[in-house]
Specification:
The complex is a heterodimer of chains A (151) and B (203).
Chain A: H1 8-17, H2 23-31, H3 33-50, H4 61-67, H5 75-102, H6 104-111, H7 116-150
Helix pairs in contact in A: 1-3, 2-3, 5-7
Chain B: H1 3-19, H2 23-44, H3 48-65, H4 75-93, H5 126-145, H6 149-160, H7 165-172, H8 176-202
Classes of the chains: A mainly alpha (151), B mainly alpha (203).
């Protein structure tokens, strides 16, 4: 009889996967009642664990979760929000240009700008910069809100 | 189409429906994953009130993060991962050790030290057999409960939920090799606890 016993890993592997997958352990197990008893115990233990009743919550999880779900902005709502945002930007842009055209003489006088073309170019550039800044602020705000939702 | 892609398609359809605002699809996701989540939460958390709060928290997190789900694993595995992380964060906050607890029982390090007299007793009488089975289950549940939280989770996921090493690795954020190694240790620890319990009963 061999004096070296099977390792714990081998005992477990034989118990889980069966002796046929580990022929090297077969001969030892035939001669070693200690290791054979351990394999038997491990396989019985695993069998018992597998037959334990499944864990279940003692409350209605679906009801509890569904009651507390936050409102989700759907894709359609997001599209509507984007369209209305763009419309507002276009309206403000056109109104600013009209106002600029109507009060061009006063603006030229106040700002000391030499001609109307330069005045319009400066106004358009200023408006574009302003809208880009606002768009960036909105994007940052959305990112922060999304991060907060993930916490 | 194979089973795997069938499963992915179902997960995708469910996620898309939820993202389009269909909350009934999310209720279906809860029903699909509840058993797996329960096996994690109930094994790790003892307080019933905390179990309730954490279970709710897990699904709220899943709902809020659903748009970021990349379909790199099954939806159930992803939800189980959230459950595992939420429970472990809770245990860390409560300063409960998650891997190695100081052992109150002697370790049977050498396999030769095994008590050869140990055997699960069998009986022919039905009533006695039922009693013994119940008693055996209670001892087993106590043995599992005495394991560190990580070992408890691994034993449950592998032997009760029949998940693969890879799936357990995804849930617990551990490499498959480590999962396998920890499972060996967990079974060894459980075996030692059971042996000690039976020895006590024999005395």
């Amino acid at each position: 009889m061999k004096t070296m016993h099977l390792t714990e890993e081998m005992l477990q592997l034989v118990a889980i996967e069966g002796i046929e997958k580990h022929p090297s352990a077969k001969e030892h197990l035939r001669e070693c009642p200690s290791c054979e008893a351990q394999v038997k115990m491990i396989s019985q233990m695993i069998e018992s664990v597998e037959s334990l009743p499944a864990a279940t919550f003692q409350f209605n999880l679906t009801d509890i979760v569904m009651e507390s779900l936050p409102e989700r902005s759907t894709e359609t709502q997001a599209k509507k929000r984007a369209i209305s945002g763009n419309l507002v930007v276009i309206l403000v842009f056109i109104s600013a240009l009209i106002l600029c055209y109507l009060f061009r003489k006063q603006l030229l006088y106040i700002s000391k700008i030499p001609n109307e073309i330069t005045l319009f170019l400066i106004t358009i550039s200023g408006l574009v910069l302003l809208f880009l800044l606002i768009a960036d602020m909105v994007r940052e705000y959305d990112k922060k809100i999304e991060k907060l939702r993930h916490l | 189409m194979n089973n795997k892609s069938d499963h992915l398609l179902t997960d995708k359809q469910l996620v898309q429906k939820v993202l389009q605002g269909d909350n009934r699809a999310f209720a279906f996701i809860i029903q699909l994953t509840e058993k797996l989540v329960a096996s994690i939460v109930l094994k790790l958390i003892n307080n019933p009130e905390d179990q309730k709060d954490l279970a709710q928290d897990i699904y709220l997190k899943a709902y809020n993060r659903l748009s970021g789900f990349q379909f790199q694993s099954k939806l159930s595995t992803w939800v189980a991962q959230i459950a595992y992380n939420t429970c472990f964060d809770y245990l860390k906050k409560k300063k409960i050790p998650t891997t190695d607890l100081p052992s109150s029982h002697p370790e049977n390090g050498e396999s030769g030290a095994f008590n050869e007299n140990f055997e699960f007793r069998s009986d022919n009488s039905d009533a006695e057999h039922a009693l013994l089975t119940k008693e055996r289950q209670e001892i087993l549940v106590t043995a599992i409960d005495s394991l560190p939280p990580l070992y408890k989770t691994l034993i449950t996921l592998y032997h009760q939920e029949a998940l693969s090493y890879e799936e357990i690795g995804t849930i617990t954020n551990l490499p498959s090799g480590t999962v396998k190694n920890y499972l060996f240790r967990a079974r060894k620890k459980m075996k030692d606890i059971l042996l000690l319990q039976y020895k006590k009963e024999e005395l």
